[in-house]
């Protein structure tokens, strides 16, 4: 009987795994990036390059072309007329002028529909270009360096991409892909008369890498950004950085390094997508965030696995006579009590030493701890020694009723009960009474129940 039930349970699990498409090619990174290319456009701006006095009290303005990339926002997978790019693609920060330098916007912004929009012989073909209105553009220093534009008509082959739902979904080492139109692609199409400015979906380049760190450098206006090693070049500016699911997590904006003589390797940066989401909200523009359409299937799989496990355990216990109703030794109770998880509403963390000594915090399903006020829930002062910008995260698993602690690649580490230093991105379970240190023993918390009970 037991073997028959076990076999049936295993058969059910295998069927569900097959139905879920485990190992199917549709879920791999190449198909995700291929589909995401349909959300990328090439942008050309006519920008002022120099302002000169003409001797009659007026000014003469010279113009040139600026090229960049962009991506659609709106209902994911559907045609759209709203696109995101870099501010420096649609305005020139360092225009030489009689007074020194002047910030001037582009006189015209276009989305190129095809490779025939701008050619060495024919010049600009306006039938192959869609004029755009700049709805929003960061000014001054240009940081965080992004812009939102609206096309006069929807390109007939470009769609909106989903945006990242929550920054907590990202971790150091996650795979990422940079999409866009680098100028080096045009060089490969160099003909007898000059460059051809490619603009088709099939010309969108894809480079891959991983997240190296999360940054907010003072030299770039303290802009929240994602450092990665997916190669980008001039022309990639404004293009999307996506994760392995196809969610846009940032706007590819600049690179640093790559000095071959010094042996320096380049680091590439994408502006955090949260800036764009906030601006779209303020402009009243709808957009989709990434949601996993297979979540319901995995919930079903989990439920069936749980039921199968319960059936197997029930049969084993029944066969061994442990579920008998007969009174043994005058007692009808079992010999032990099953330890159960703790409800989230009953959990607290309490500061033992350091900045938060004596303070008690209730928990949500994720609590981030660190110095960055924009990315954490428990925020340390900027000058706290040993604590990283985003140091660690507490994660509550409602199915298990368990609290976990995960280090997020901090410099000085996260420790549990003095003896255990956490490996980056490897969660470790916590129980009531456990203590953990953020960077050093000077910053200590304890897990308690409501009211500080251990």
Topology record:
Layout: H1 2-19, H2 29-36, E1 40-53, E2 59-76, E3 82-85, H3 87-90, E4 91-97, E5 100-105, E6 108-112, E7 118-119, E8 123-124, E9 129-137, E10 147-151, E11 175-180, H4 183-188, E12 205-215, E13 225-228, E14 240-243, E15 248-256, E16 267-272, H5 274-283, H6 295-319, E17 347-353, E18 360-362, E19 366-370, E20 378-379, E21 392-397, E22 402-407, E23 414-416, E24 420-421, E25 428-430, E26 435-438, E27 444-449
Parallel strand pairs: 19-20
Antiparallel strand pairs: 1-2, 1-6, 2-3, 3-10, 4-5, 6-9, 7-8, 9-10, 11-12, 11-14, 12-13, 13-16, 14-15, 15-16, 17-18, 17-27, 19-21, 21-22, 22-25, 23-24, 23-26, 26-27
Helix pairs in contact: 1-6
> What's the CATH architecture of the largest domain?
Beta Barrel
Under CATH at level 1, the class of the largest domain stands as: Mainly Beta
Mean pLDDT: 82
Which stretches are poorly predicted, pLDDT < 50 over at least 5 residues? 1-27, 294-298, 324-340
Describe what you observe in this structure:
The protein is α+β, with helices and mostly antiparallel strands. The protein folds into three domains: 56 residues, no CATH class; 259 residues, Thrombin, subunit H; 109 residues, Sandwich (Tumour Suppressor Smad4), CATH 2.60.200.20. It is built from six helices and 27 strands. It has a six-stranded antiparallel beta barrel with strand order 1-2-3-10-9-6. Strands 11-12-13-16-15-14 form a six-stranded antiparallel β-barrel. A six-stranded antiparallel β-sheet has the order 18-17-27-26-23-24, with no helix packed on it. The longest helix is centred in the C-terminal third of the chain and has 25 residues. The chain starts with a helix and ends in a 5-residue tail after the last strand. The N terminus is likely disordered.
């Amino acid at each position: 009987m037991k073997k028959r039930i076990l076999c049936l349970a295993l058969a059910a699990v295998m069927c569900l795994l097959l139905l879920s498409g485990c190992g199917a090619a549709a879920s791999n990174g190449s198909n995700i990036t291929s589909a995401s290319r349909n959300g990328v456009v090439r942008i050309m701006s006519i920008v002022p390059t120099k302002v000169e006095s003409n001797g009659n009290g007026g000014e003469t303005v010279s113009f040139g072309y600026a090229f960049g990339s962009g991506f659609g926002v709106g209902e994911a997978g559907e045609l759209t007329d709203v696109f995101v790019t870099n501010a420096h693609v649609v305005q020139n920060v360092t225009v030489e002028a009689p007074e020194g330098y002047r910030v001037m916007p582009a006189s015209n912004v276009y989305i190129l529909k095809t490779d025939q929009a701008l050619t060495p012989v024919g010049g600009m073909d306006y039938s192959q270009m869609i004029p755009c209105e700049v709805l929003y553009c960061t000014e001054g220093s240009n940081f965080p360096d992004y812009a939102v534009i609206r096309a006069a008509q929807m390109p007939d082959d470009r769609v909106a991409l989903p945006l990242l739902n929550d920054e907590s979904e990202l971790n150091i080492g996650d795979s990422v892909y940079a999409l866009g139109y680098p100028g080096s692609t045009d060089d490969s199409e160099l003909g007898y008369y000059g460059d051809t400015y490619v603009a088709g979906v099939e010309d969108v380049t894809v480079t891959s890498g991983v997240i190296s760190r999360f940054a907010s450098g003072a030299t770039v206006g303290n802009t929240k950004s994602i450092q990665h090693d997916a190669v980008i070049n001039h022309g990639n500016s404004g293009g999307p950085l996506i994760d392995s699911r196809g969610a846009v997590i940032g706007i590819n904006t600049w690179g640093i390094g790559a000095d071959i003589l010094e042996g320096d390797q380049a680091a590439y940066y994408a502006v955090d997508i949260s800036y764009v989401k906030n601006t779209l909200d303020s402009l009243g523009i709808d957009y989709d965030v990434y949601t996993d359409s297979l979540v319901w299937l995995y919930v079903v799989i989990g439920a069936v696995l749980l039921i199968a496990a319960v059936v197997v355990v029930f049969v084993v216990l029944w066969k061994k006579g442990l579920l008998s109703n007969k009174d043994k030794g005058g007692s009808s109770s079992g010999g032990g009590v099953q330890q159960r998880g703790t409800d989230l509403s009953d959990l607290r963390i309490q500061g033992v030493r350091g900045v938060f000594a004596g303070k008690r915090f209730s928990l949500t399903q994720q609590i981030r701890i660190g110095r960055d006020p924009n990315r954490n829930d428990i925020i340390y002062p900027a000058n706290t020694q040993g604590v990283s910008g985003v140091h660690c995260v507490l994660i509550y698993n409602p199915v298990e009723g368990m609290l976990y602690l995960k280090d997020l690649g901090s410099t000085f580490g996260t420790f549990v009960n003095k003896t255990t230093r956490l490996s980056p991105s490897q969660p470790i379970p916590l129980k009531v009474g456990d203590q953990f240190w953020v960077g050093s023993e000077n910053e200590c918390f304890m897990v308690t129940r409501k009211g500080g009970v251990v």
